[in-house]
Amino acid sequence: MSPKVEAEGIISKARGEGRNFLLEPEAKRLCALYGLPVTRFEVAKSEDEAVEAAERIGYPIVLKVV
């Protein structure tokens, strides 16, 4: 899929859901599609997943616990 098509899909999805904003992962993906540098991130749902993600990304890391 071309970057333009993927970007249009991200925006269309947000609009289709009645949003006038992008969620953080959507915004980061959109920026990356157009060559803007973004921080790497992963979503983890358990301590084990967080450790695995940290090992993939590399240390040091920052966690956002929600």
List keywords for this structure.
66 residues, mainly alpha, 2 domains, 3 helices, 0% strand
List the helices and strands and how they pair.
Elements: H1 3-16, H2 24-33, H3 47-57
Helix pairs in contact: 1-2
Could you describe the 3D structure shown?
- There is one protein chain.
- The chain is mainly alpha-helical and 66 residues long.
- The chain folds into two domains: 1-35, no CATH class; 42-66, no CATH class.
- The chain is built from three helices and no strands.
- The protein has helices at 3-16, 24-33, 47-57.
Please give the largest β-sheet: none
**Would you tell me the overall average pLDDT?**
94
H/E element sequence: HHH
Number of domains: 2
Number of strands: 0
What share of the residues lie within helices?
40-55%
Number of helices: 3
What multimeric state do the chains show?
Answer: single chain
